Amino acid sequence: MKGLAMLEIGEIGWIEKERPTYGPRDAIVKPLALAPCTSDVHTVWEGAIGERHDLILGHEALGVVDEVGSEVRDFKPGDRVIVPAITPDWETEAAQRGYPSQTGGPLGGWKFSNFKDGVFGEFFHVNLADYNLAHLPEGMSLEAGVMLPDMLSTGFMGAENAKIEFGASVAVLGIGPVGLSAIAGAKLRGAGRIFAVGTRPAAVNVAKEYGATDIINYKEGDTAEQIRNKTGGAGVDAVIIAGGGPDILMDAIRAARPGSVISNINYFGQGMGDEDTIPLPRVAWGFGMADKNIMTGLCPGGRVRMERLAEVVMHGRMDPSLMATHVFKGFDKLEEALLLMKEKPRDLIKPVVIVEQ
Ligand code: NAD
Ligand code: ZN
């Protein structure tokens, strides 16, 4: 079978691989719709998780079940499914402690395109199918559905971890598809004022649609200062970080008030050494004592998460398809879509590849 792979750091290409094998509780799935992620860009072009050779990329997919193991109960060949980006081993100790995304070590629930072939192949393997697949609801568009495995799950987690109370003020730094999903999540969690920090006009429009009340242009002034000026000097109750470079925590902590949560969903790329660090503003952080608490998390995966996100969409709470700005038809278009995600033209929010209808 054919797949779009990371050949080595900085290089992608199409490769031939054996079709994956599967165990009694697993499934083999064919892609129906796929989306490249900014994380694929960090992985390939920044070497953010280290070297990988001939690893098939991709972790955002809708699919059609092709084969199932003998013990799979709820899925059969031909079923249309949502495939979460994160497919934990649900019996493990980390899952039982409530951290399924971290099974088998930090980020261990992230298998596709991390340490196992991803979803950008003609077929891909899903472990524990009954726990890691969800049925694609009748009537959900592929453009909307393909945002669930990662964009909605991660963005909403950003809002969940931010512990937003009714009427709370929230700033979202970075309004790509992850930050936009976080804005929608913050609104659904009851935020009052929502500051969207970004510049791209297409993203700004969707940010407003999803619930942003104020747009902050970080290129025209200091982000934290602009937010503090608009909040009577106080800062916000929660900051969700969904973009920016290694020093973005400086903006976040300076924009936050005491008693806040800084909820990071950003993937800090580049470098694999213990000496790689990211700065915090010592004074604005109250010398480490200002009750400005940093939360982190990897996208939640699994079946129940996908089913719940599908409920949000199917009952009209938000429309994720607004983020699908560039829609390609055909598996062969994957490379173009991934390169577009790398280039990030100004009118791009998220490219989507519809493999079949
Ligand atoms: P994106 O690149 O489309 O969006 C980020 C935006 O932030 C860009 O538009 C960029 O111009 C902007 N930005 C840069 N510097 C900024 C600054 N100082 N202030 C405000 N905005 C700034 O990316 P995305 O696809 O939305 O993903 C966002 C991040 O989330 C990426 O790092 C991605 O790898 C990560 N991610 C994490 C998880 C997770 O499980 N935690 C899952 C998916 C993606
Ligand atoms: Zn991703």
Automatic annotation (TrEMBL):
Enoyl reductase (ER) domain segment(s): 10-354
Record-level GO BP terms: small molecule metabolic process
Pfam families associated with the record: ADH_N, ADH_zinc_N
Metal-binding found in the keyword field: yes
SMART domains from the UniProt entry: PKS_ER
Cofactor: Zn(2+)
GO MF, one annotated term: metal ion binding
Keyword hit for Mitochondrion: no
UniProt keywords, alphabetically: Metal-binding, Zinc
Record-stated family: Belongs to the zinc-containing alcohol dehydrogenase family.
Name of the molecule in the record: Isopropanol dehydrogenase
Lineage per the UniProt record: Archaea, Methanobacteriati, Methanobacteriota, Stenosarchaea group, Methanomicrobia
